[in-house]
Amino acid sequence: MERPRRPATGGAFSAARHPQPAYPGRRSAETRARRGAARDRGGRWTPGGSLPVFLARARWAGGSSALAPWPWRGAPRVNRAPRREPRRPPGLRGDEVSRLYRHRFSPDERSRRREIWRELCAWFQGRYVHEEDVLLDLGAGLCDFVNQIRCARRFALDLDPEVVRYAAAGVEAIVGDAGSLDALDLPPLSVVFASNVFEHVRTKELLLQTLAAVRRALAPGGRLIIMQPNLRFLGGEYWDFLDHHIPLTHVSMTELLSVTGYAVREVRPRFLPYTTKSALPQHPLLVRAYLRFRPAHRLLGRQMLLVAERPEAGGPGS
User: Which residues contact 272 (CB under 8 A, 6 or more apart)?
Assistant: First the structure.
């Protein structure tokens, strides 16, 4: 026997008061009209209004589709500021670099530096630098290296405009930073020499970009020679110079070279003392003896020496 149905009582959940959609999954005409009106009222968020309330109303009015970025769906659109390229962090200007180094090195110290560099150039000549090479001294500073090394063609690049005055006859001086290499009209380089340069770069991202630019400037098989302080053996002394920004050891420098496509050929964690004011012998004969006596490097050396190459054409990383 069929059980009779109860008549609608008009309660809160009465079917008469809440008619079901014509088929499952479809909203009733009343609901669609109500939400469409709410969507029309919502329109677009304006400054001064409550963004969370606006988003909640939009989602209630049209579900998740109301927030989709399609104008023909009547969706609210939140205008975003255009994406900006990251700003290059400010560093020392050329005139500030000039004042800094005038303060750091007295005329007598500059003269002693030239004598030390004369012996260093004699040590590098024939080992890593040859007379037929085209060489760039990156961050040439006082030009103590590039003025005394013998090459077919020599370039000196530095941010300090005084580099033009420091460069000797036969050296082509360029005022600029390492990041401008791609814009320079340089021939393919056999050697790029960088002494106490990369610790002055403002960020690691810029250092990666600089190493990549140097690699592009090198001819296949060209060499990058790096000499700089090794944080591993310096501790807090590394930060005694206000223009040191990036902490680097021989391990992190090797990793940087590898990830930027170089083939690392030689790594000497200890090579020279920290500065020319350190315990490095000042007389040319003693400097020459120090360079030849490797055990002295292990005792006094707190700068590293690395030699890397751009791989030959067709090789891995070329």
Answer: 227, 280, 297, 300, 301, 302, 303, 305
278 near 285, Cβ under 8 Å? no
d(CA 206, CA 202): 7
DSSP-derived secondary structure for 90-104: P---HHHHHHHHHHH
What are the structural domains, with CATH classification, of the chain? 98-309 (3.40.50.150)
Residues in contact with 260: Cβ distance below 8 Å, sequence separation at least 6, in sequence order? 208, 211, 212, 215
Q: How many CB atoms lie within 10 A of CB 194?
A: 21
Q: Is 264 exposed, middle or buried (0-12, 13-18, 19+ CB in 10 A)?
A: middle
- How large is the average pLDDT for residues 82-87? 44
Model pTM above 0.85: no
Residue with tokens 């969507």: 39
Q: Which of 29-43, 252-266, 278-292 has the lowest mean pLDDT?
A: 29-43
CB 172 within 8 Å of CB 156? yes
pLDDT at position 197 over 50: yes
Using an 8 Å Cβ cutoff, are 159 and 176 in contact?
Answer: yes
Edge-to-edge strand list for the sheet holding 134-138:
171-175, 153-158, 134-138, 189-195, 218-229, 303-309, 263-268
CB 39, CB 62: distance < 8 Å: yes
pLDDT above 70 covers a percentage of the chain that reads 61
- What's the pLDDT score for residue 274? 76
Can you tell me whether residue 18 is helix, strand or coil?
coil
